[in-house]
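Reviewer comment 2.1 asked that we show a complete input and output for one of the modelled complexes. We chose the MU-OXO-diiron case, as it is the one discussed in the main text.
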Amino acid sequence: MVFPIPISNDIFWIGVNDRRTCLFENLWPIERGVSYNSYLIRGKVNVLIDTVEASKSDEFFDKISYLIGPGGKLDYLVINHLEPDHSGAIRSVTTRYPEIRIVGNSKTFRILEQFYHIQDRLVAVDESLSLDAGERRLQFFLTPMLHWPETMMTFDPVSGILFSGDGFGSFGALEGGLFDDEVNLSLYESEIRRYYSNIVGKYWNPLQKAVKSLEHTDIRIIAPTHGPVWRKNPSRIIDQYLKWSRFEADMGAVVIYGSMYGHTEKMADYMARILCEEGIRDLRVYDASKTHLSYIMSDLFLYRGVLLGSSAYNGGPYPPVEALMSKILNTGIRNRLLGIFGSASWGGGGVKAIEQFAEKIEWEVVGTPVQAKGAATREDYAQCAVMAQNMARKLREDQQ
Ligand code: FEO
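Response of the prediction step:
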């Protein structure tokens, strides 16, 4: 991916891969890396669509120079999104290309000033104000809170390319292939979902509004700021994002536990076995202390059943479970079935906290919460079995 990659006759991917950063937004593990996709429209008017994260700007500028020559001129920089993974090179762009003008909407310019103290060379656009870009007029779709206030998408009617910003993006660096027809998409599925669930998932309503606003647009290619470019089947990624935005889920269950000494863990393992005996084949079991919550969130977008267990800790829930519940509440995942369990040695607090969480998130609680005193007894396991059987029955009923 050292050189620009043509997307159409005069439009090029000039993004970069980042396999060095450990935490995206200093929060989300990216073991498989991430790409920062930028694009260049070359013609009578040269237009840059977004930039890249600052630490990768050398490679980015090499690609620009390759396309327009060392003394070439850039006319416009369109900012679809100002988060620094895409805006980090803006200052370097304006220094290297002093004639460039910055295209955005009123909210873009507010944040541009806050982040980079840039107040000049601005060209305001919105849905009624297109941009003369030589051989084409670029159109703009404002998509506020997908996932920042200023986010917008840019459409080129000549090529049918929608530059969609973070919308329809994915974690995972590009591994040779850029286009959906060049890669084995099954290798990207989990990182697409993890990206959606952790970065975009909270903004399901803005996403649906954005898709609605695009429904009469002849989109032939979707070029997001992260991950593959969708040219063979752009509707695939739109449909996938829409499904998640509706919180539609498959018949399966995620069993999650926070356990200090193993008592709650054994209850989790036991219930996973019962679910399996009841015919549930799609099952994931997570130790919340070990697995980063971004992976658990991803599976919570996939499966309808959730068994959540916690030991007590200082009168409350086990901290990793507390962090997960906070993330779920913040994201507002809907329409899940919840079984509650845990263990406590004296005052408790874990199970009670999950019960309070269930009320806030408004998930349907399955069965009666089970709280063992220390190690679960045979009676406790019997109650766990009933809860898991009820969960399996409800999951099966959903499929009918
Ligand atoms: Fe890829 Fe919201 O930045």
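The mean pLDDT is 97. We note this here for comparison with the apo prediction described in Section 3.2.
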